[in-house]
Amino acid sequence: MNAPHAQSSTGHPLGSLSVSRLCLGGNVFGWTADEAQSFAVLDAYVAGGGNFIDTADVYSAWVPGNKGGESETVLGNWLASRGNRDDVVIATKVGAHPDHKGLSAATIKAAVDQSLARLRTDRIDLYYTHYDDESVEVGEFLTALDDLVKAGKVREIGASNISARRLEESLDFSAREGVARYVALQPHYNLVSRDTYEGELAEVAARNGVAAVPYYALASGFLTGKYRPGGSVDSARSEKAAGYLATDRGRRVLAALDTVAAAHGAEPSTVALAWLAAQPTVAAPIASARTVAQLPALLAVDELTLTDAEVALLTEASA
């Protein structure tokens, strides 16, 4: 059941998994990208050397008329039509679907079977707890997740949106009881949002060998450089991204991105992802593409290595 997947030429270890430097975000599938557009993006991502795809059972329940599970369904249809399940690492999440909220053992066990059905697969490579549920003891959900690993339904587990205290408590429980442990952490982290990860949470991850897979890696598109003073962008996320322009830090970061991008003949988005990839504990930043045209700048992170001085310039600008 746990068939080996093809190793990416630029594989980074995530527990027993080997993942590409860029994780493709699936939040747009079935939302701002229809099935045909999503298939085209997925095909181009894999053709470009990517093998790590992130989704969640709740994507995209926030869209009027959607119920959640739309992204997993699109991804499952693509996997079935391409016959490439063993070549890709599929990550999804539990705990936020409207019908399966929270992390009780019963919720996790019901939700995973629905995710597997939508994804049209017999196993999930990386299964995240989407949001911590402090009403549930860590032992309850970790034991439930361990049962899924033992059953072959899940290969590795990860946590998203969890405090440093609860992450440490979870890791301690796994070590003490010999159950599955978190190998990945999905924090909100980018050049204009550093305190959402740096500090205590990053220290717990580093101390325990937990790899970070940051979401909002491009700050809702702001770090692509397409948002500029006086300009406007037609995007579902433009209001959030444009808010960064109103801050001194946002403008400083854009200027630093422009400087480094010019030195490499690269896009600002590639530089922003390369800065993240250079940070301690980070295995693979997550970025999504609505169109194939948006992908090359994201995939280029695999080829771009920043100098220490460039990393320092960006770090100082984002302080």
SSE inventory with pairings:
Blueprint: E1 12-14, E2 17-19, E3 23-25, H1 35-47, E4 52-54, H2 70-82, E5 89-94, E6 96-97, E7 100-101, H3 105-119, E8 124-129, H4 138-150, E9 154-160, H5 164-177, E10 182-186, H6 200-208, E11 211-212, H7 238-245, H8 248-264, H9 268-277, E12 286-287, H10 295-299, H11 308-317
Parallel strand pairs: 3-4, 3-12, 4-5, 5-8, 8-9, 9-10, 10-11
Antiparallel strand pairs: 1-2, 6-7
Helix pairs in contact: 2-3, 3-4, 5-6, 8-9, 8-11
Strand order of the largest sheet: 11-10-9-8-5-4-3-12
Coarse morphology? globular
Biggest β-sheet, characterized?
8 strands, parallel
Extract low-pLDDT stretches: 1-9
Look at the structure and give the mean pLDDT: 94
- What's the alpha carbon Rg, rounded to whole Å? 19 Å
How far apart the termini lie comes to 47 Å
**What's the helix count?**
11
N-to-C series of helices and strands: EEEHEHEEEHEHEHEHEHHHEHH
Structural class: alpha/beta
Overall number of strands: 12
Task: Outline the structure in words.
The protein is globular. Helix 2 crosses helix 3 and helix 8 packs antiparallel against helix 11. The strands form three sheets. Strands 11-10-9-8-5-4-3-12 form an eight-stranded parallel β-sheet, covered by helices on one side. Strands 1-2 form a two-stranded antiparallel sheet. It has a two-stranded antiparallel sheet with strand order 6-7. Strand 10, helix 6 and strand 11 (211-212) form a beta-alpha-beta unit. It has helices at 35-47, 70-82, 105-119, 138-150, 164-177, 200-208, 238-245, 248-264, 268-277, 295-299, 308-317; strands at 12-14, 17-19, 23-25, 52-54, 89-94, 96-97, 100-101, 124-129, 154-160, 182-186, 211-212, 286-287. It is of the alpha/beta class and 319 residues long. The longest helix is centred in the last third of the chain and has 17 residues, at 248-264. The termini are far apart.
